Structures are given as C-alpha cells and as structure tokens.
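Q: Sequence in, structure out?
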Amino acid sequence: MQTITAFLAILSCCTPIALAQKTTPLSHEQLAEITARGRLLAEYDQAAWHATDAVMASHPKQDINSRFVCRKTEPTWTCVFGHLSTDKFLIDYEAVQGASPEEFQVKHNDPPAEDTDFYFAAAKAMLVAGKDFQLTAESRPYNPSVLPASSGQWYVYMVPAQTKKGVFPLGGDARYLVTAEGNTILEKRQLHKSIMETTAQVPNGGKFAAGFHTHVLTNVPEDTDVFFVLTRKPLVPEMIGTGKKQMYEVETDGTIKLVK
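A: Exactly. Output:
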C-alpha cells in the first residue's frame, strides 16, 4: 500500500506590520493575476534554459555568460545574449524558439546587432535589481528574470537556482518593480525569506500527493509559488497557509483557489 505524503515548510517569520497587509482573501481577479505572472515566469525560466543550451551547442567564441534577456512574442520566445554599453545592448547571439519549447534556432551576429529599446531597457532593469539583491542574498546561485509589467515598467525576479537534480528550492526570492527605462527601482517585494530545499520523491514507494508551506512574511500566494509548482517534478499541487488563517491551493496548471 502506498503512503500519501505532503511536506511542511515554514518560511520565515514577519513583523506585525507585515501581517496587517491583507485582512480579506484575494479576489478571483487578483488570484488570476498572480497565476498569469507565475506562468510567464516559469516559461521564461524554461526558455532561458533551453536557449542557453542551444547557444552553447553552437560553440560560441564570445563569452555568452555576460548577460542575456528573453522576450515572448506570441507564441514563441526569443533570448538574446550580449553586452550592455552606455547607450545600447549589443547582441552577439539570438536564439528563437522553434516548434517545441525545447527547440531553439541560433543566429550569430558579427558584428553584434544593436538594440536601444526592449532588450536594452530590460537588461538595465535586471542589472540595477541584481546589484541591490546582492547586498542581502544568500551565498548561492540565483536565476534573474525580467518581464514587462502591465504599467509599462519591469518586473525583475531573483529566484534561487536548482543545484541538485530532483531537489527544488523554495524561498529566498524577491521581485523588483523597475522604471520603464530600466534605471530606477520603484519597489522591492521580498516574496519568501529563508530557502527550503524540497523534493517530490517519497521513500519506500510512496506517492507524493501535495506540498504545503505557510506564509508568515506575507498573507497571499506569490508569483514564485506558481513558478515553484510549475517547475517541480513530478507536478503536484501546493497548499499555502497564511497568518490570517486562510488556505490557498496552487494547482498543477498554476491556477490558484481559496480553500478556506
């Protein structure tokens, strides 16, 4: 007989001020917005991963690890690799998604293509947020992602990278809101505090049914909770408790619902 197991992760603690941020459950519209951001963040992560693999397979002469930005143009992603100058982003390589999420076609620009619009501003936003985050980040690898905000500004996410196969980090992440030109941080939101290394593997042939953690830093599901569910393997839901005794569930497609 298989054992159904869930894990409990208590993510940090917070001040009474933080607990007062939310007194009522989020609306369906607010939950849908978190889901949309989390799904896009998970897509970005996958695009960056496979695009990097494709560029590396082309045996690049330049140092492609300098800086990269991904952009979704329905229905596919394009990731560019290059360098920031004072007034432009110099694109050495472009990787364009093909027929599947894992397939990318690589183009080498020699001389580098110049961008002064989307990629330039996005790269600056990632840079300014990354410098701030380094002041408080734990000493481990992080994956930065930059996404357009509905306001015309930028969201920059700093998420801990997976360092062990089958072990998925949750926590220690932040989201920045940066001005449209990419120069100034408008808001920093710490999403979770301490990092929990989690696995969906259960010993003795058991079945992992769902995960569970409690938010005491904020009282709402976060974008990276959706990201976590969509990138953890195997796919299982995640239950989230809050300091206001509310319970949310992130389903395996990223949809969030209020349980109680």
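Helices lie at 16-19, 28-57, 118-133, 223-231.
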